[in-house]
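Researcher: Go.
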Amino acid sequence: KSIYEKAVDSFNQNGQQEKIIPYLEAELKKQPKNENLLRLMGFHYLQINNATQSEKYYREALAVNPSCARCYLNIGRIYATKNDFKQAVTYLDKALIIAPKDDLILSNRAQFKERLGDNFGALADHDQAIAIAPKNAYNYTERGVYNLRQNYAALALADLNKAISIDPNNHQAYFYRARLNLEKGD
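Model: Structure:
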């Protein structure tokens, strides 16, 4: 981790989240073209739901490094918060050109494709994310939630159980498994 990420972690651990952005702004004044700082600014503005500022900093990071796959991912997420899933998928497509084996990008694109009604494409992305990172519980949880929404209860249950077996602290998987069982009357 960079010194900036360590400082941000320290603020988080000490419950001083309000100090993160002022700290990053001060550091950015010293190094206005530091990609890491620009990305951190974008991320932390995204955390406080300021999409405009977040996108600004991610675009500045892309100007410094046009190969920043996570910048494209997070700009895509910003478009998704605006319910512009077509544009969100476009940005995730760009991210995957740079980082085709990034399971997080694939999982996010799957969610956005589903919102566009591209269920086949969504499932293919979920499957590919799992193939790339078969020990990542998040990917099974996301595919399980997808299967739950598609009314494939048995597939959803299998994915959620797999997510829990990989990460017994995966609260989201427990929540959706409980929801599934409740719908079945169990």
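Model: The two ends are 45 Å apart (CA to CA).
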